[in-house]
Specification:
This protein has four helices and four strands. The protein is mainly alpha-helical and about 180 residues long. The strands form two sheets. A two-stranded parallel sheet has the order 1-2. A two-stranded antiparallel ribbon has the order 3-4. Helix 1 packs antiparallel against helix 2. It is elongated. The two termini are about 20 Å apart.
Length: about 180
Amino acid sequence: MTDQTTRFNLSMRVLHWSMALLIFAMIFAGLTMVRALEPWQLTLLGLHKSFGVLALMLLLLRFLIRIKSSTPSLPSGMSAIQVKLAKLSHWLLYVLMLIIPTSGLLMQYYAARPIVVFDLFTIPATMVPHIEYFAVFREGHGLAVLLLIAVLAVHIGAALHHHFIRKDGVLKSMW
């Protein structure tokens, strides 16, 4: 749904920036965990899993709000291919934000490791580990994160291009 709105609504803006911070923290934590075997790693891993579940819940909320909300139109000076690429990159971000926590959940499930979410509830796991499935979801999780980093770099670069070069208000629509 698109109209003459110039800014995303407050809930979309809050979710956008809070999820941005969460995603960057999750990427940093994930990359830190794969590079170090320190005693604090288990604590960080537990937090990573809990925040991953939170990210998935926020994504679902964000998606529901997104499909029910009016959104600002893209600037009129953009070419048809730029509009298609912008829409494709946004949907790719949504797909990756769905795939990454889901693959993390499935990775833990097939490793027979229940996920304790902030000591509030537990997501159960299989009783018997399935190492092949674990390996598939672990590999997919890592590859999806690398793709997300690349898409985020493009997304941030495009936002900065709109703000500093084109000066068309795209970045301001998220503030």
